[in-house]
């Protein structure tokens, strides 16, 4: 006998709409992460790698925090705007992305 468990799907017919909404919210919030606090050494290391990447136009992989999630992007850094505190990175698709300097978590030179 082959029984396939469908998880919450089998129970949704008996649930109220409010319960279904709350289950969706719970699943969404499980993926939420808190922004880690970087110490001075980590910030200095990111700053050093950032300067090298800009001067030598090296491709980088950046891990950053946005919308309660950790995200990763890669490309070449076009500009660092210190007035707006943001990094402008050009991705492989020739699209430019702006990332706040305060949200940088890790930077790897390729």
UniProtKB/TrEMBL annotation:
Q: InterPro entries recorded for this chain?
A: YolD (IPR014962)
Lineage top rank: taxon: Bacteria
**UniProt-listed Pfam families:** YolD (PF08863)
Query: What protein name does the entry list?
Result: YolD-like protein
Specify the species: Halanaerobium kushneri
């Amino acid at each position: 006998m082959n029984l396939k468990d469908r998880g919450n799907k089998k129970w949704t017919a008996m649930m109220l709409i409010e319960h279904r909404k709350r289950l969706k919210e719970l699943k969404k919030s499980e993926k939420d992460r808190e922004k880690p606090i970087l110490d001075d050494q980590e910030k200095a290391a990111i700053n050093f790698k950032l300067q090298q990447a800009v001067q030598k136009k090296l491709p980088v992989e950046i891990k950053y925090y946005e919308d309660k999630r950790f995200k990763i992007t890669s490309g070449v850094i076009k500009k660092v705007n210190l007035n707006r505190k943001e990094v402008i990175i050009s991705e492989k698709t020739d699209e430019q992305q702006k990332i706040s300097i305060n949200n940088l978590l890790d930077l790897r030179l390729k």
